[in-house]
Amino acid sequence: MSIKISNLSKKFGGFKALSSVNLNIKQGEFVAIVGPSGCGKTTLLRLIAGFEQPTTGYINMQNKTISSKNKLLAPEQRNIGMVFQNFALWPHMSVKEHILFSLKNHNYTAQNLKKNTKERVEEILEIVGLKNFANKMPVELSGGQKQRVSLARAIAPHPALLLMDEPLSSLDIALKMDMRREIQTLHQISKATIIYVTHDQGIAMAMADKIVVMNEGKIEQIGKPKDIYTKPKTEFVASFIGKANLVPGKWEKFNEFVPQFASHLSWINNDIAETFHQNNIFPVRPEEFHIKNNKNGIPAEIKNVLYQGKEIHYTVSVFAKEWEIHSNQLNKYQIGDKVSLHYDLEHANIKGKRIIL
Ligand SMILES: Nc1ncnc2c1ncn2[C@@H]1O[C@H](COP(=O)(O)OP(=O)(O)OP(=O)(O)O)[C@@H](O)[C@H]1O
Question: Which positions fall inside the ABC transporter domain (predicted)?
């Protein structure tokens, strides 16, 4: 299913939860919507589902307007499946009955699935790993199992659009990885369009064709995961996705940046968005900084050390600001160590000579 969202806004009383959202989603695309709590992700999803009506703008599905100020097609009239954060299971139905109910009552279930409900229920139970729980009631299930029932119910009728709101949030890490693979496989097999709301940027990066980054009811950036990560367009996107450190300084000619705390250095990067040039900021990813014992880089002090197995995460303070650095260097620094920070693509001018560090 293809979707076009145009100039969409939503007000709750005097509060504007969404402002002028524009988004095009192609048939079969996997789109992740990420952003901090309260930025409007769920509101956008509820508008797409048909639970809320827009204040301005419209939503088209397959080139037909299904939501606007004057029109609202009911959720059951849209060919969608939904997985909610809070599962929304029916307490009086077993696992199997949830799947069956959805197969029988979804307006768009294909005839071949309706005719063979028994096989379809078995198939879905297998996919979500609940074969041994078919006759259990919701009260007898763990949070993760309930979430899988919610997923099973949504995918059983094979909807053209799957809306998922934090569908993996209550699973443990191993199950999360399993279900992540299942959803990816499901996406490949079903060719359904998926809109997936999450706080978890790791999941968004790994699964989505396209990421939509939201902040305060607006879209900050839309792009492929790699582009969002390597070419953030705003300071918000740089800090939210991949926790970039926003280094102040001065952009000189030829895309050279001189950091404020080490004016003998210059960093060259042709791929930094215009906003950063205008604001004289250079975003440096935690893994792009290297900590050294010399005095040639940006002076810093180690404030915190977190061992993460093959990486060490340092918090360092630089002239009262705190930055994050991820290092796989073997030499470990201790809290209180005075160190020097270097960026990947760095040159230094020492006594008029330009050297590469
Ligand atoms: N029915 C409502 N009435 C009034 N305000 C609402 C309503 N629904 C949402 N809001 C407000 O709109 C804003 C966006 O909420 P929304 O649930 O879309 O955020 P979110 O990005 O999904 O957050 P989270 O990640 O915490 O679930 C919030 O400030 C919320 O309080």
Answer: 3-241
Q: Is the pLDDT of residue 197 over 70?
A: yes
Residues 156-170 have pLDDT tens digits of: 999 999 999 988 887
Cα 58 to ligand 1 centroid, rounded to whole Å: 20
Task: Determine the distance separating the centroid of ligand 1 and the alpha carbon of 110, expressed in angstroms.
Answer: 35
Which residue's alpha carbon is at the smallest distance from atom 6 of ligand 1? 12
Q: Is 274 helix (H, G, I), strand (E, B) or coil?
A: helix
Residues 175 and 275 in one domain: no
| CATH code of the domain in which 122 resides | 3.40.50.300
Its domain, for residue 337, covers: 243-343
Q: What is the structure's pLDDT at 103?
A: 95
Report the predicted TM-score, pTM, of the whole model to 2 decimal places.
0.88
Ligand 1: distance of its center to the CA of 17 in Å? Answer: 7
